[in-house]
Amino acid sequence: AQSVAQPEDQVNVAEGNPLTVKCTYSVSGNPYLFWYVQYPNRGLQFLLKYITGDNLVKGSYGFEAEFNKSQTSFHLKKPSALVSDSALYFCAVRPAGGDGGATNKLIFGTGTLLAVQP
Amino acid sequence: NAGVTQTPKFQVLKTGQSMTLQCAQDMNHEYMSWYRQDPGMGLRLIHYSVGAGITDQGEVPNGYNVSRSTTEDFPLRLLSAAPSQTSVYFCASSYGLAGSETQYFGPGTRLLVL
User: Fold this and answer.
1) Which among B25, B11, A35, B43 is positioned nearest to B34, based on CA atoms?
2) Is the dihedral of CA A82, A84, A89, A91 positive or negative?
3) B53-82 residues touching A, CB cutoff 8 A
4) Band of the pLDDT at A96, cuts 50, 70, 90?
């Protein structure tokens, strides 16, 4: 079955330290991968996506993610965390359709709560 | 642009009642989706639409109906509410296929079914 996993329910990091939020996936074909962020009582906001090309993708608010095909991972990173980065982060993957073509569906992970302490 | 708007923000229903969750977008996006968010389960796709007059089922469609009479609006109807439908509901839209394009999410509707 095609799926995406976020192995950590919560990540704690001190302000100014680097942060990593992990994501692994299992899909057939070439994956489209996304990261979204959800602030309290808000809808999800797009951070970045990988479709093709350079394995290191840069996104909003200083975040970046590295696509690793051999490890089927797409970890979200930031060199220096801010207290304002505290939020719920979702990884999402596009599953291949029956014909291997693009679909209109995304599979979301269960989310990782990032807590940045001052 | 207002983006994606949802009404109401919060609703309490009794078991068996029906209601419609409203969703509208002003970005002329063809693709719209409804998700529900439950603790520990992430977002699950309920129904989606690839254009006016075209809808399809997602992962958890039972108990919900949708229609898409215009590009802007994509209402979600609960036919007979059940406690299992207590959740936060998000509407999203995108210019292209949701699997390829960035989705824009509304602020959500919190639904409590007693």
Assistant:
1) B43
2) negative
3) 56, 58-59
4) low
State phi, psi for B85 to the nearest 5 degrees. -95, 5
Label residues A76-112 b or e (16+ Cβ within 10 Å = b). Answer: bebeebeeebbbbbbbbbbbbeeeeebbbbbbbbbbb
The closest CB to that of B42, out of A90, A95, A102, belongs to A90
CB A91 within 8 A of CB A33: yes
Judged by CB atoms closer than 8 Å, whether chains meet at A110 and B103 is answered as no
Q: What is the DSSP letter of A104?
A: S
Residue of B nearest to A7 (CA): B40
Residues of A in contact with B31 (CB under 8 A): 104
pLDDT (tens digit per residue) in A44-71: 999 999 988 889 999 999 999 999 999 9
Q: Which residues pair with A49 in a beta bridge?
A: A34
